[in-house]
Amino acid sequence: MARPQETYSKKEKEKKRLKKREEKQKKKELRKAQSKGGGLDNMLVYVDENGHFTDTPPDPSKKVKVDAESIVIGVPKKVEEEIDPIHQGKVSFFDHSKGFGFILDNLDQEKYFVHVSGLIDEIEENDKVSFELEKGMKGLNAVRVKKI
C-alpha cells in the first residue's frame, strides 16, 4: 500500500485546524473562569405584581388565594343576540349590464354586495332600500332588496 502524500497545503490546513481548536478551548476556559457560577439561583427571574421582571422573589404577604373550582375552562357559549334582520341602506353603485352592485348600510356604514338575483324591486344608484343579509362565498351579501 502506498503512503498518503502529505503536501504543504495539507500541513498548513492541519495546523490551522489545530490552532482553531486550541483557541476555542482557551475561550471556553476563559468563559468558565469569568462566570459567576451559583447554579440555578442566579438564572431565575421573577415577575412582580406589575408584570416587570425582577431578580428578587415576590413578597409572600401579597399572595392571592385563587379558588381552583371558580376557574372556567373552555370557550363560553356564544349568546345569540336578537338583531333586526332587515337592514336599511343606500345603493352606492349598481351596474345593470353586469347585474351587481353595492349597498351602504345606514347603521355601520358597511358595504354589502348585491346581485340582481337578490332583488325584489328594480333599483338605481342613490335609492334608499331595505335588505336582509346572507352569507355568501366572500362575505355577507344583501338579499331580498326592496325600495323604500
UniProtKB/TrEMBL annotation:
InterPro entries: CSD, CSP_DNA-bd, NA-bd_OB-fold. Residues 1-41 are annotated as: Disordered. Pfam families: CSD. Gene3D superfamilies: Nucleic acid-binding proteins. Residues 86-147 form the CSD domain. One of its GO terms (molecular function) is nucleic acid binding. Coiled coil: none annotated. GO terms for cellular component: cytosol. It comes from the Bacteria. SUPFAM superfamilies: Nucleic acid-binding proteins (SSF50249). This is Cold shock domain-containing protein.
